[in-house]
Amino acid sequence: MARDYRRLAIVAAAMLLAGCGIGPKYMQPSTPAVPAYKELGASNVVAGEWKPAQPADRVARGKWWESFQDPQLNQLEEKLNISNQNIAAAAANVQAARALIRQARSQYFPNVTANPGMANSRLSNAFGQSVGINYNLYSLPLEASWEPDLWGRVRKTVQSNTFAAQSAAADLENVRLSAQSDLAGDYYDLRAQDALKQLLDSTVAAYTETLELTRNLYRAGLDSDEAVAQAESQLKATQAQDTNVGVLRAQYEHAIAVLAGQPASSFAIPASANRSNPPAIPVGVPSQLLERRPDIAAAERLVAQANAQIGIARTAYFPNITLSGSAGLESVSIAKWLTWPSRVWSVGPSLAETIFDAGLRRATVQQYEANYGQTVANYRQTVLTAFQQVEDNLSALRILEQVIYQQNEAIDSAGRNLVEAEVRYKSGLDPYINVISAQTALLNNQQAAVSFREQQMVAAVQLIKAVGGGWDISEIPTAKEIGARASTSSTY
Length: 492
Known about the structure:
Number of strands: 7
Radius of gyration: 37 Å
Helix content: 55-70%
Mean pLDDT: 86
Strand content: 5-15%
Number of helices: 10
Structural class: alpha+beta
CATH architecture: Up-down Bundle
């Protein structure tokens, strides 16, 4: 008997080793090698990495928005991290993915059920007896069944669910980063409206003074009513522009309220025309981008999950071996129900193997192999898109730096032209239409400057998002962490 047990153990060990080899070994897909960013050259972009938060640091790892040194923005971002509903939904998705891991792990263990019962029965009298027999049957059975994971199906299912949960955790951080960058972008769009409002307010005040001057000259007989009408038309049109700024500002404010998890009806941001400059942004080197983008990490974990699912599909070629048994108490007398002589039991293995399935298993494996190819393509596309986004915003910052410098020179020239036009008008050398043209040119250039600064700040936010916002792949929970039972204080 000892020899038989040894043989059985050897066979079981061989089966376990065979099960470990089912399915392809996972290797991270290759991606294009990029030695350096082509567009790295703007003065507000630096090489390097986000640093851990220190009192003297201008940029804090994770809290990248603090590098803009705007207390109002800092306060809004903290509200977002607590109250944003998209983040809350993504966090719940992580918890659901973690629960799937524990569900898969439960298959490592036997399934035990109890089914106590009492029944009153009558035997048929159709077998030669003159009278049927009535009797009571009292039973208390315990049944157990267990399917050993000989081919690695359960192990690969746990592995697949773990990869999916890690992907969900990376998705959570991607949702968080997207919401944070959306809020910062909307915030600087709103501040641009405040700057435009301040510009138009001052312009309306200047046009009002010019209109009063034109009226005085008309009363003195030194100008015509045509000039007065022109000045009035210009003032009213500018007042309409000034009022219209409130529409877009209100929309940005409402968008920020939703991102911060606040009702738009009770949310307000005080107006401020403080002009900010984009901070120095550490973009690092291209090879680091694969480790700094949560969406890339999520796509890579999906590739690993798809690879594990191929192994799960291949285990269908092997037989299912189930060990089952039952034990309990059974009696026709309630007095003898819970006694030792009433015990019953049974135990034994069973094996099930599909003999013919018309190619079902082969087609299933091919399906998961195709799914794997799709996830690899999606992963590589995510990487390519990430490089594009970094280059887009690097080029935007580089070009906008030149554009803003040139636009400021245009404003200076338009200002000098306006001064000269006003002097010549007051001297009676030129008509008032020349002043209007000069004023319009100056206002248009000033409005363009506000727009370019808005684009610059938003591009800075988008560049930070494109390089991962200080996130790092080491922040993905390990298989042990993601599979642990959730706690109320856990991030994941």
